[in-house]
Structures are given as structure tokens and as C-alpha cells.
Amino acid sequence: MNRIHNPYRSARYVISAHQLKQLPADSGYEVAFAGRSNAGKSSAINTLTEQKSLARTSKTPGRTQQIVIFDLDEERRIADLPGYGYAKVPEKLRAHWQKVLQRYFEERECLRGVVLVMDIRHPMKPFDQQMLAWCSAIGLPCHVLMTKADKLKRGPAQAALHKVRRALPEGASAQVFSASNREGMDALIRQLNEWYAMPATG
User: Fold this and answer.
1) Of 163, 141, 142, nearest to 152 (Cα)?
2) How many Å apart are CA 146 and CA 185, to the nearest integer?
3) Could you give the CA distance from residue 31 to residue 110 in angstroms, rounded to a whole number?
4) From CA 102, how far away is CA 181, in angstroms rounded?
5) Are 15 and 69 spatial neighbours (Cβ–Cβ below 8 Å)?
6) Strand order of the sheet with strand 172-176?
7) Helix 126-138 vs helix 91-107: crossing angle, to nearest 10
8) Which residues contact 29 (CB under 8 A, 6 or more apart)?
9) Rounded to whole angstroms, how far apart are CA atoms 41 and 78?
10) What are 104-135's pLDDT values in tens digits?
11) pTM of the model
């Protein structure tokens, strides 16, 4: 049960951007959510914001083909990045997003951190490792959210967490999370509060 104040319930949809120039002004605080298309990224955002359909969830992974921006307040935003690694998209579109996302990470000065969503049963795929390498190369903090923790018993879930933590580059962290039973919500909120410079919560 979530016991601390959740400032992310105020999230509201702003824009779906196909190009970086369509994004809001590069100021304030932005945190990006990234992950494979079937890792549970949309469900994690919906659970965090306590809004059932803020981020689209689908039985067909890969529906997010833009950078989707949600405002928290005038200074703070969530950026939902296109799912990668699974979506059946044309090669031209895949190449476009590879280029756009690389520029996004290198040029977006308001970016404070990346929440990298992984299915706890299938962590550290090559695309996940590439994302961690990108973040490490530019000194951007990365927090791994190991979703669907309810699909494993506590022992195997903790073993998977420790294995991922051992493989993380410097500046990265990891936790378990479940959208179904809200396990890990407090830890995620505290991490985001730090990046967004939110007032301390209980």
C-alpha cells in the first residue's frame, strides 16, 4: 500500500512529438521512461500517476511511436519514449527513432534521468544494455524499474534484482516493481522526487 504523498497524480497529456523540435521548451525538469515495447512501460506510468489510461497500453506492443509528453506542473515533465526492440515497425521508422533518441539523450539539457523499464523475467537484453551505455557515456542517471515482479516469487525476484545491480554501470540503480500490486511505488516516487527536486516526503 502506498504510504507517501504521490505528486505524480497531477500528470496530464501535452503532446506526441515525432521530431525533437516539437517538444516543449528545453527548460525545467524532464525524466524519460524508456524500455522494450513489451516490458510494461505504459502500465508503470499509469500506476505511478494513478490514472488507468494516461499512457496507452495495448495487447500489441510498440504502439508508442512518438515521444509522448506529460506535464506534472509548469516546470516538470515525464517523457514517454518509443518502445524499442520488439515493435514490428518499418526499418525506415526504426532508423528514424534511433537517430532521434540519440540526439534526445545528447542534446536535451532539461533531462534529469531515465527510468529504464525491464521485465524482471527477461532483463538486460541488448537494447537495455545499449540504453545503459548511452546514459553512462553522457553521465545521465539511470534507474532500472524491474516490472512484473508479481510474476515471480520473492526469492527469484530478489535474485534477479541482485544480478542486474551487479551488471549496472556507475550512476545507475535498480528496483523491483509491480503495476498489479503497486510493489515498489514508494521507492520509485522517492527516486523521481530526487530528480525533480521535489520537497521531501515521508
Assistant:
1) 163
2) 12
3) 8
4) 34
5) yes
6) 12-17, 67-71, 76-80, 29-35, 111-119, 142-147, 172-176
7) 30
8) 75, 76, 77, 110, 112, 195, 196, 197
9) 12
10) 999 999 999 999 999 999 999 988 998 999 89
11) 0.92
